[in-house]
Amino acid sequence: MPLRLMKYAWKKSEDEPRFFPEEKPLKKAYDVVIIGGGGHGMACAYYLAKEHGITNVAVLEQGYIGGGNTGRNTTIVRSNYLTSEGVKFYDESLKLFEDLSDDFDLNIFYSTRGHFTLAHTDSAMRTMRWRAEVNKHHGIDSEVVDVDTIKKEVPYMDMSCNGQHPVMGALYHAPGSVARHDAVAWGYARGAQMRGVEIHQKTRVTDIKTKGGKVVGVETDKGFVEAKKVISMVAGSTPRITEMLDIKTPIEIFPLQACVTEPVKPFMDTIVVSGSLHVYVSQSSRGELVMGASVDPAELHSTRSTLDFVEGLTDQMMDLFPFTSRLKIMRQWAGMSDITPDFAPIMGKTDVEGFYLDAGWGTWGFKATPVSGKTMAHTVATDSTHELIKPFSLDRYSKFELVGEKGAASVGH
Q: For residues 111 and 177, what is the distance between their CA atoms, to the nearest angstrom?
């Protein structure tokens, strides 16, 4: 350990204040209870306090801050979606990401890299052209590029993919970025707490109580808490929460796995995704290759990771980047993805008065962290659905008004 760090172990007091204040006991009642202390829950609490002056808010987290899907994703931020609804929504999020370090006075290591979505077939090229046209229509910087352009920007990639699936072109999205996921959650959490919001970790919600069709509070493993409004922002645990109110959703839960290699010297300053090969990769600020694949083939509520995942992912990675055969895998993990039939989220009000839902994020939840918090805070504070999330209401399934975002998922599912 460096001496400049060891000296703090011998000091009787610390000059720097605690990053988070000490946790207080649960109060009897709150105006708003947010279930889930990940990035979305913290962002919602932050914008409720900052933009709407609602500070009598409790965030209840069964684990620890950012310990769910927020801390298990591969940190990619982009807005090159397929539908107009998706493009407008995620572009607003990307713009919010760009200013978060200043907002928090905390470095979230936001790094604009450029994002290549590779196409290996004629049909994939058609989808890339489609996405590029939709993106340009909304002023998003995306374009279809040829193999020579990719080779110039990613010279170490084997365009033939070992002769298996030659790269034919790509959708290039210049604003594509990465950020430190834990710093995003911590920044929102600290900003919310500074404005009076309470965060209760290791506090599990066991039931939601209603009276006359309206939410009146939540039961927790630390006692009952009255609440005028309750928001569920729990990603892979959504079915457990909605079952408490007998709310039916089309969400299914699949494990999504990822891993990192040992750190190596910086060589990759772009993000590379292949939907056909089911891989995506970027290099972190510490030099690790951060890699992910598609969700597991079977529905399962679990965060275990598997050898089968690593074998499949590394096999495809060596087709794209043969030199990675010499790298060691250092860590692997899994999160639980709540996936909807149209690959778009479910957001907004429900049929139960005072209960709001933020779910169905699949493999694209991290990049929506700021905009989900901002739009859900507006919806809860005003009890009117924010314009950006109106297409993502739960009742779109009963109305057959699906959004249809599957073509923009980062990998095949």
A: 5
Give Cα 307 to chain centroid, integer Å: 24
Q: In angstroms, rounded to a whole number, what is the distance separating the alpha carbons of residues 293 and 308? A: 12
Residue whose token pair is 């939840």: 365
Q: What is the enclosing helix (H) or strand (E) of 126?
A: helix 122-137
C-alpha angle with apex 153: 169 to 173, nearest 5 degrees? 60
Cα distances (angstroms) measured from residue 282 to each of 81, 182, 290 = 19, 17, 5
Q: Locate 29 and state its tokens.
A: 């009642």
- Cα distance from N-terminal residue to C-terminal residue, the chain: 44
d(CA 294, CA 73): 12
Which of 413, 316, 362 has the alpha carbon at shortest distance from 120?
A: 316
- According to the 3-state scheme, what is the secondary structure of 56-92? CEEEECCCCCCCCHHHCCCCEECCCCCCHHHHHHHHH
Strand order through the sheet with 111-112: 76-77, 177-178, 111-112
Map tokens 């707490």 to a residue: 193
Please give the helix or strand (H or E) that residue 225 lies within, else none: strand 223-232
pLDDT values of the chain reduced to their tens digit, one per residue, 413 residues: 677 778 777 777 777 788 998 888 999 999 999 999 999 999 999 999 999 999 999 999 999 999 999 999 999 999 999 999 999 999 999 999 999 999 999 999 999 999 999 999 999 999 999 999 999 999 999 999 999 999 999 999 999 998 889 999 999 999 999 999 999 999 999 999 999 999 999 999 999 999 999 999 999 999 999 999 999 999 899 999 999 999 999 999 999 999 999 999 999 999 999 988 889 999 999 999 999 998 999 999 999 999 999 999 999 999 999 999 999 999 999 999 999 999 999 999 999 999 999 999 988 899 999 999 999 999 999 999 999 999 999 999 999 999 877 666 655 54
- b or e along 135-172 (b: 16 or more beta carbons within 10 Å of the residue's beta carbon)? beeeebebbbbeeeebeeebeebbeebeeebebbbbbb
Dist. CA 182–CA 359, nearest whole Å: 20
340: three-class secondary structure by DSSP:
coil
pTM score, two decimals? 0.93
Residue type, 57: V
